[in-house]
């Protein structure tokens, strides 16, 4: 009876455990790809040059027991696309496949290739050391400890399987396998542990920052609400005050003169205070959402027009000069609707606009272009592209991290793009960035189709 209850409990918990495992693996893949893909071009150069060079070295200069020209040629061929990572990232076909390709390269080039060559060379001292170096490189390149161990074990297992098919016997002259495997495992686990501790320290620092930011945001909301309510009150009563002044003047009472230009100026100032406090309130909401690590409330979401959101953002954005507005080109194609919040969408566009205008100030003829696109699958996309200086490859994988800013110190908070990513995920969509340093930056926001969407 007790045994049956245990099995029943395990069956009930199994779907939950499998779901958690699937989510953890997905996060591990995303982290590993995002943090290490910036090294793809460099890794490709090393592979394309290194394989022919070491083939020559291990056959003519310091001959080894086993070398394989065709395996080296295959390694060079599969490495060639890495040299064109930036071009492939702009390709619609390759864009979504680069992550899987990069993980395949890491699997094949490091654990599989080096373990197979070590096995074929009977774990000679050279290939034993080379395999340890490959393990350390894998630890350095792959950010997440779980993906490091998965790649190492899968690659090593595949190498052993291929070795058993083509040879199957280890010679007596190499280093003992029972000594080497614990050494390799120690290197992988110890290296991953140190990486994990570094990650924990970074997370603790981020948690401290988010707590401080959240506290400040809460403290600022009260005076901000007071300023906004006071400005609205003045704006509501100002017409009555001016009307009373006009009546007093018409009846000959001794009142100080107030020109209509002054009245309009006061109205403009109050409108500006209301607009700025509303915008600041949204910034504080962004800070609070990021610091509390909560999701956005979906209860107020409704059908929204994308064209209306873009036009409202362009109309309300506080451009500092006519030139800034002139370089923004909006190409209103066929409208589409999405389920979400127009206010949140407008502030996502505000943030993209602010960042682009900051960087476009550094070039002479930069422009911003915004347009919509319909997918055959029924999904919709909004493109936001500027021809500014682009994003440095070292910064690109981290731009959606909270409190990470590529702007100079004091110029950016590092919450805008993180908030944009959170907003898009709350819309059941996603935001991606493609950039070529020195040429352009493009953000692509994808929205899923919704029922009764009658846009064409």
Total DSSP E strands? 7
Count of separate DSSP helical elements: 14
How are the strands ordered across the major sheet? 2-4-5-7-6
**Whole-number mean pLDDT:** 79
Structural class: alpha+beta
Low-pLDDT windows of residues: none
Enzyme class: transferase
EC number: 2.7.13.3
GO molecular function, one term: phosphorelay sensor kinase activity
Keywords: Membrane, Phosphoprotein, Transmembrane, Transmembrane helix
Describe this structure in words.
- This protein has about 450 residues and is α+β, with helices and mostly antiparallel strands.
- It folds into three domains: about 1-175, no CATH class; about 210-290, no CATH class; about 300-445, 2-Layer Sandwich (Heat Shock Protein 90).
- The chain has helices at about 1-35, 40-60, 70-80, 85-90, 90-95, 100-120, 125-140, 145-165, 175-250, 260-290, 305-315, 320-325, 340-360, 415-425, and strands at about 300-305, 330, 335-340, 370-375, 380-385, 430-435, 440-445.
- The strands form two sheets. A five-stranded mixed β-sheet has the order 2-4-5-7-6.
- The longest helix is centred in the middle third of the chain and has 74 residues, at about 175-250.
Please describe the structure with a list of short key phrases separated by commas or semicolons.
single chain; 456 residues; Heat Shock Protein 90; 5-stranded mixed beta sheet; 7 strands; elongated; membrane; EC 2.7.13.3; transmembrane; histidine kinase
């Amino acid at each position: 009876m007790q045994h049956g209850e245990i099995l029943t409990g395990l069956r009930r918990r199994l779907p939950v455990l499998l779901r958690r495992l699937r989510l953890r693996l997905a996060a591990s893949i995303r982290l590993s790809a995002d943090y290490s893909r910036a090294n793809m071009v460099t890794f490709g150069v090393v592979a394309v040059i290194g394989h022919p060079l070491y083939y020559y070295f291990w056959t003519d200069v310091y001959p080894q027991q086993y070398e394989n020209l065709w395996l080296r040629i295959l390694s060079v061929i599969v490495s060639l696309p890495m040299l064109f990572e930036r071009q492939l990232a702009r390709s619609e076909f390759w864009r979504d496949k680069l992550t899987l390709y990069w993980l395949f390269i890491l699997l094949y080039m490091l654990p599989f290739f080096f373990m197979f060559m070590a096995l074929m060379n009977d774990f000679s001292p050279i290939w034993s050391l080379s395999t340890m170096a490959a393990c350390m490189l894998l630890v350095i390149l792959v950010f997440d400890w779980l993906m490091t161990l998965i790649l190492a074990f899968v690659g090593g297992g595949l190498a052993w399987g291929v070795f058993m098919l083509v040879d199957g016997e280890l010679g007596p002259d190499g280093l003992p396998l029972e000594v080497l495997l614990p050494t390799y495992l120690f290197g992988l686990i110890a290296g991953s542990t140190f990486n994990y501790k570094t990650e924990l320290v970074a997370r603790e620092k981020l948690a401290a920052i988010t707590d401080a930011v959240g506290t400040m945001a809460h403290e600022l909301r009260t005076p901000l609400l007071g300023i906004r309510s006071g400005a609205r009150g003045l704006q509501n009563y100002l017409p009555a005050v001016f009307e009373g002044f006009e009546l007093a003047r018409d009846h000959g009472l001794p009142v100080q003169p107030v020109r209509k230009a002054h009245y309009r100026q006061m109205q403009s100032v109050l409108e500006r205070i209301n607009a700025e406090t509303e915008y600041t309130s949204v910034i504080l909401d962004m800070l609070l959402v990021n610091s509390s690590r909560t999701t956005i409330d979906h209860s107020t979401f409704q059908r929204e027009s994308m064209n209306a959101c873009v036009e409202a953002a362009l109309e309300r954005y506080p451009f500092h000069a006519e030139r800034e507005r002139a370089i923004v080109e909006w190409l209103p194609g066929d409208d589409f609707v999405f389920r979400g919040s127009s206010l949140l969408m407008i502030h996502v566009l505000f943030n993209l606009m602010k960042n682009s205008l900051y960087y476009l100030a550094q070039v002479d003829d930069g422009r911003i272009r915004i347009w919509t696109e319909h997918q055959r699958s029924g999904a919709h996309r909004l493109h936001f592209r500027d021809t500014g200086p682009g994003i440095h490859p070292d910064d690109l994988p981290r731009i959606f991290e909270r409190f990470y800013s590529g702007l100079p110190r004091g110029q950016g908070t590092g919450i805008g793009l993180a908030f944009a990513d959170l907003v898009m995920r709350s819309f059941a969509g996603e935001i991606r960035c493609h950039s070529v340093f020195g040429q352009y930056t493009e953000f692509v926001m994808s929205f899923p189709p919704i029922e009764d969407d009658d846009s064409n």
